[in-house]
Amino acid sequence: MDVLGDQAAVVLVTGVLALAVVTFGELWRPARNVITIVHEAGHALVAVLAGRRLSGIRLHSDTSGLTLTRGKPYGPGMVSTALAGYVAPSVLGLGFAALVEVEQTAAVLVVCGVLLLGVLVMVRNVYGFFSVVLTGAVLFGVAWWTSPPVQGAFAYLITWFLLLGGVRPVGELQGKRRRGRARDSDADQLARLTGTPGLLWVGMFFFINLGALALAALWLLG
Questions:
Q1: Which neighbouring-strand residues pair with 54?
Q2: Phi and psi for 21 in degrees, rounded to 5?
């Protein structure tokens, strides 16, 4: 019972910490770079799976990013590539929730390492390079110098952060769209590619990410 109690405490504490990071602007702004890395990695991975050629990834100091691919500027491959970015953090977080539920916390750290290495190989600007290296250094420090319980808590924190951090950018996206500052956003690209309203795609991002959060929360808190 003590072990179960300790694990429940870790789940709750890491969830609260992740919520605080996502909620408070001073914490969210630097942490959002991690969400951007995963966002762009999602674009890149799906582009490759869809048969597009990956040219590079750029990460910017305003926490925006850009994934450059080559291929037909229309069709299912382009649509799936554009769709992948905003849902990538939540989908990855859902996968991590499944892993930590079966006590495979080491696998979470390994997947994070592989993801960062893949982005590092493709990053094409100085800020992006240092952003990925810094994130990787934190991950390496936890994996190499901390005990298994600390690594486990860190895996839970990453999981909660991706799940919660996947929802907030969708709201930020729609806020920018209302102000006319996101004409080339993923949602607006999808609107042009499919002839459907951009708001429809924003709603899809939101419900996918909220659904992933709800399902993962049931696993983690249940």
A1: 69
A2: -65, -45
Structural element, H or E, at residue 73: none
Contacts of 146 (CB under 8 A, 6+ apart): 154
User: pLDDT tens, 60-117?
Assistant: 999 999 999 999 989 999 999 999 999 999 999 999 999 999 989 999 999 999 999 9
Count of CB atoms situated within 10 Å of the CB of 78: 20
Give every CB contact of residue 176 below 8 A, 6+ residues apart in sequence: 182, 185
Tell me how long the chain is. 222
Note whether 143 and 113 are within 8 A (CB).
yes
H or E element at residue 11: helix 2-23
- Dihedrals phi, psi of 70, to nearest 5 degrees: -120, 140
How far from 81 is each of 34, 119, 194, CA to CA, in Å?
19, 16, 13
